[in-house]
Amino acid sequence: MNDDSGSKKKRNPGWFAKGYSPNPGGRPPASPAPQPSVLEILVDKTLTTVRDGMEHTVELKEALQQRTYQDAINGKPMAMREVVKWIKARDAWRTKHERQASPPAITSPISPDPDNADAALLLLGIAALNPARAEYTQNRAQLLLEPRWVQAAIRRRRGGQRLTDMERDEIRRCTRDPDNLRWPRATDT
User: Fold this and answer.
1) What is the CA radius of gyration of the chain?
2) pTM of the entire structure?
């Protein structure tokens, strides 16, 4: 800028002098669209091959992949690396696109048979077979509750109400060793 012009504007030190540009050729033209390589053009072609006396038409890409796979099987290191890349790419694609398999729903028919509950009580050690009543019924075993589980149930009893005589008799009848039970303080034994 010229000081004689009367402009009070300060000159920006980043501006270039009038008529001078660091790019004298101007903006360069846009780069041309990339042209496909010769290999990319050939990959879209098809080949006719004879295998087992039969003619097969395959794309060149598939034929090259088969050849690379055969080379990898024959122990050529470059082909082996290429096949490993294919496997990694396939696994990455599957991980990204396939739905995550949910665990299979556990479906088992629930039988109304009371023996199922009896078997669970025996397996968990909550009950034991009653040897005195083994011959009572042939189709269903008679069980007695283990004293430690009955004792735990008595301790957890809420409400502070006394056990009635009928409740105590029922507990004694269903427990394997009722003499080892400790009754609540407010209960007469």
Assistant:
1) 45
2) 0.37
